[in-house]
Amino acid sequence: MRTGEVKRRTRETQISVEVNLDGGNSSIVTGIGFFDHMLNALATHGSFGLKVNAVGDLEVDCHHTVEDTGIVLGQAFAKALGDKSGIARYGSFFVPMDEALAFASVDVSGRPFLVFDGNFPEEQVGGFDTCMCKEFFRAFAFAAGLTLHVKVLYGENSHHMIEAAFKAAAHALKVACAVTDGKTALSTKGSLD
Asked: Where found, per UniProt (predicted)?
């Protein structure tokens, strides 16, 4: 089974994540309703089993909870991927959400990098600061060892724009993490790290 479980405790957050790349149930509680909605979209559209329990210093703001959840989720993904043998490695996807359109492309390379291009008209969606969209993807990509490009091409509603970005990333990850007939890592070097 391609699973990963990580727990992390700091003075700001207490987070546990379980991920199953081959599917399963989802249970997500972060204390930030819109963020729960986005993580559920990530799990549903990526066909991942995902359990997230996060308690953070929301009396400050959502920053630590969102960023630290990205870190722990990325670490769990890295565990689930193991040595990355026999996966497609690359995935790209466009997702429309009403008036918004987003694109994501991922390389499960072991070389963390994020390119994020998205400007949101509202500063908040519910209790989620829209600037945290980029911070989440950065934390996740670096902890998981992914090269990840996310672009929100256009939109008018920040909810739709962010949701399109999460769903595009989910579908790109689903393609990249898919098991192929290969027995080794898809790399001229012979390994992905």
From this structure: Cytoplasm
